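Lecture notes, unit on protein representations.

Consider one protein chain, 184 amino acids long.
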Amino acid sequence: MARPILSRIALVSVAAFMAFPASAALDIGDPVPKFTANAALGGKTFRYSLADALAKGPVVLYFFPAADSSDCSIEAHAFAEAVDQFAALGATVIGVSADDIDTLSKFSVKSCQSRFPVASDESKTVINGFDALMQTRPDFANRLSYVIAPNGTVAYYYQNLNPDKHVERMLNALRALPRTSAPR
């Protein structure tokens, strides 16, 4: 008697899970929310504007769960090592997490090697706007990377908690972008 009830509960649970898929990234071609946020580069804080960055070319925007965690440090280091490759493709890089600006200020020197900025989104407004909230741990951003075209739309995205392929995928997506001038 207990076994059929447990089977039905399991079936209902699976059906409910499938009806509410995990948070998905914005889709290719979707307009992205423009934002400004407190950011740090080389330990110095400033106000970052996505609109200003897009006026100069494509932007690689990557979300990460927590500064100074092992995987986030690995990913930041990989982005830092590839900054010149991104620049050669006309792109800039910005990382975003829900960490406070003081934490990110230190992270910008230590893990980002003062090569690119990281922005604080403690309110998770930007994280939610880009569908980057980690569903299983809603206090954190998911590991999700975007290439945003200069016109403000998603050109490519990649979501995976493993930090190893984000840089490679973003570089490949930038290489595939049509070469156009930035909007004026």
